Amino acid sequence: MSDTTQQSENDIDGEPKPNASATDDLGQVQRQRDEYFDQLQRTRAEFLNFQKRSKTQADSDRVYAVGSLARDLLDGIDNLERASVALKATAPSGIHEGLDMVHKQLLATLAKHGVEPIEALGKPFDPNEHDALVQQPDANHPEGTVVNELSKGYRIRERVLRPSKVAVSVKPAQS
Questions:
Q1: Looking at the structure, do residues 40 and 92 belong to the same domain, yes or no?
Q2: Cβ-count burial 126-143 (b if 16+ within 10 Å, e if not)
Q3: Does the global pTM surpass 0.70?
Q4: pLDDT value, residue 124
Q5: Alpha-carbon span 147 to 132, nearest angstrom
Q6: Based on the domain organization, do 155 and 170 belong to the same domain?
Q7: By CB count within 10 A, which of 23, 24, 33, 150 is most buried?
């Protein structure tokens, strides 16, 4: 190379001049790198959130999986309870005591899996837990109180599995 060519490619100190297109290319590559890094961080965060949601959903599914089986058993448990009550008046004590033991055993098994009865009698009516079938005039209870439980309700953890079918108090009609 000639000295003049060498002189033009170097600045005054003898250092090479930065090429404008190389600087632009470097800036573009750095911006692209930053974009990719940002995308990587976002993707990583989204994946962690997905993992957390999946674990939460799997835990919830595991806890509430017994719900459909329990719901199917509740009618049989109700009939067992009715049979026990009916036999108390007519049959020898051993038979209804045996039915009571089976009934308690079934309820204990359900309770072990988080299924428990909803306490309704004497409580204020809650449409989330109770299904009002009858309004019953009652001067002894405040209006809107459950005064009779026609069918027991059940919940699994905090979810209602089957609402209680209840009679709710209303003010007696004035004569």
A1: no
A2: eeebbbbeeebebeeeee
A3: no
A4: 94
A5: 11
A6: yes
A7: 150
